[in-house]
Amino acid sequence: MLKINVNSYLCPALNFNHFILLLKKEFDIEFRQKTALNGIILFVLSTVFVSYLAFQHVIAPNVWNALFWIILLFGAIITASKSFLNEQKGRMLYNYFIYSPREVILSKIFYNSILLTFVSFLTLFLFSIFIGSVVQDLGTFSLILFLTSFGFSAILTLMAGISVKAGGSFTLTAILSFPLTFPMLLVAIKVSKLAIDGIAFSVCLQYLLVLLLLNLIVSILSFVLFPYLWHD
Amino acid sequence: MAKNWWKILAVLIVMYTIVAGFLLPVPRLDILNETIRSLYFHVPIWFAMLFLMGVSVYSSIMYLGSNKAKQDIVAVESANTGIAFSVLGILTGMLWARYTWGTWWTTDTKLNGVAITFLIYTAYFILRSSIEDEQKKARISAIYNIFAFVMMIVFIMILPRMSASLHPGNGGNPAFGKFDLDNTMRLVFYPACIAWIMIGCWIAQLRIRMEVLSKKILYDETV
Questions:
Q1: Which residues of A touch B133 (CB under 8 A)?
Q2: By the 8 A CB rule, do B84 and B121 touch?
Q3: Residue A168 to residue B140, Cβ atoms within 8 A
Q4: Closest CB from B136, B146, B162 relative to A210
């Protein structure tokens, strides 16, 4: 009976050069097409502008906070749900033979987190212009944005992979990822309210550590589970 | 009969906890008063739900390693039964909250966690129903199930510890800690936990058997 060593089949050693190559490929595709990036910029711009028109005046910090994270969550899902869609069939097969799944998921997570960091800072910038800047502790707030960008990208990349394999649509990605992003989102909302009010960093620190822990959990899960998804 | 003794035992113990739970004396605590008896039903039901979800995620992990269809059936049917138990847990909790907190539902980390757990597992079933191919369905949903389970543990075990919560067991509210539970209550509470877990396993087992049989009849597959 033919017996495949599951371990060596599923996780060949990580090759750092492959990872860089894949990451570069993602950026190349993005800069060649520019649809995803332009789409997401337009999405953020129009939602922020709609909120500006709807609210008219400078709004209370907790409303600002809620609105910011809702827009960011939707932006993140839209951004990440594209991560497997622009792979052509032939290239997918090519990647399948050349790279290990671990390299693929790592590169995609990093690419998405860079994109999401950009999107979140863009949202912050547009919010400051249109709705008013209420954040008092910008350093802590930026740290929160970095952490959530990475965590969201780890969750959403795997979910985008699942919904593509399921032949599903954008709706499926949203349904699958919404409840899974909630733990991180709730902690982020709580700590960013503290950062907005300018509370001392030592108070925020425990929430930031929880965010870090959640990041660790979701990235390990994505990293471990993706190979099973990749090998059809 | 030799195989079925534990089912009879489970039914007997649940009947005992219902009778004893309503009749035996309970400690007089402020606000809680008689509603403390809810502990005999609400908490064991959640334990049974967690146990079933644990079985489900265990079989999902096993499925990814072995690709046996039986494991997938065990995973999905335990999750199904677990979701039914979580509805029961929510309902008993709501009934208790109505008479202790004065409201059916309130914004509380533990309650939110439970609601989102429900959403996560509903998404799991939606994912399953959106894939046609049986093997693909089994593998992809196993991946999602593992992710979902870990997130559920984060949500109902870790996050409530971080913030103020009204729920017993959090923030100094009385729960089944060593100071709040007297020995008479233990006499009912511990058997209740075991019995409800056994009842959950029984229901899941029936569902698994039904699913295996229907596969056999419909597709002529032996699982």
A1: none
A2: no
A3: no
A4: B162
Is A221 contained in some domain?
A: yes
Q: Is A184 on the interface with B (CB under 8 A)?
A: no
The verdict on residue A72 lying in a domain is yes
For residues A173 and A159, is the Cβ–Cβ distance under 8 A?
yes
d(C-alpha A141, C-alpha A191), whole Å: 8
- Determine, for residues B131 and A167 on separate chains, whether the beta-carbon distance falls below 8 Å: yes
Residue corresponding to tokens 């930026």: A142
Q: Is residue A2 part of a domain?
A: no
Which residues form the domain of A218?
17-230
- In B101-182, which ranges are continuous DSSP H helix? 109-129, 134-153, 159-162
The residue whose two tokens read 């997938």 is B72
Residue B58 structure tokens: 């265990």
- Whether residue A217 and residue B154 make contact (CB cut-off 8 A), yes or no, is yes
Do residues A189 and A63 make contact, with C-beta atoms less than 8 angstroms apart?
A: no
Please tell me the total count of domains within chain A: 1
pLDDT at B109 exceeding the cut of 70: yes
Given A167, A176, A210, which is nearest B144 (Cβ)? A176
Q: pLDDT tens, B185-214?
A: 778 888 888 999 999 999 999 999 999 998
Residues of A whose CB is below 8 A from B120: 179-180
Q: Is A208 domain-assigned?
A: yes
Percent of chain A with pLDDT over 70: 89
Q: What is the pLDDT of residues A164-195, one digit of tens each?
A: 888 767 788 888 988 899 889 988 998 999 88
